[in-house]
Amino acid sequence: MQDPSYPFFPIAFFLSFILVLVPLPWHLQAWNVGTVMYIVWTALACLNQFINSIVWRNDAIVRIAPYCDLCAYFYFISISFVFLRVFFSSAIRFVVA
């Protein structure tokens, strides 16, 4: 079954991948580490969704098994990183306050 949003979905994620990287040089120059990490994380997530929307556009048959594993590891690591970041930032606020 064809997805009615197929041409729009990959194009939107590729454009968002490009647009997220636009302010990266400014934040690298200003040494904004947190913002740079967020930009890289968001850009990788958009690139991952772009590739996934092309690879699995019509069905869910796994054609590239190592890539599927890499996508799963990326999501697991990024979600773990976000939870650890939130936990440690809130823990530091309680210790300092």
How is this structure best described in words?
The protein is an all-alpha fold and 97 residues long. It has 4 helices and no strands. It has helices at residues 8-21, 24-29, 33-55, 65-96. Helix 1 runs antiparallel to helix 3. The radius of gyration is 17 Å and the shape is globular. The termini are far apart. The mean pLDDT is 80.
Q: Residue-averaged pLDDT, rounded?
A: 80
For the termini, the CA-CA separation is 56 Å
Characterize the biggest β-sheet: none
> From N to C, what is the helix and strand string?
HHHH
* Unreliable runs: none
Q: Helical amount among residues, as a percent range?
A: over 70%
Rg of Cα set: 17 Å
How many distinct beta strands?
0
- The percentage of residues in β strands lies in under 5%
The rough form would be described as: globular
- Structural class, by secondary structure, is mainly alpha
- By DSSP (H or I, 4+ residues per run), the number of helices equals 4
Give a brief rundown of this model.
The protein is an all-alpha fold. It has helices at residues 8-21, 24-29, 33-55, 65-96.
Characteristics of this structure?
single chain, 0% strand, mainly alpha, 4 helices
Q: Which secondary structure elements does this structure contain, and how are they paired or packed?
A:
Blueprint: H1 8-21, H2 24-29, H3 33-55, H4 65-96
Helix pairs in contact: 1-3
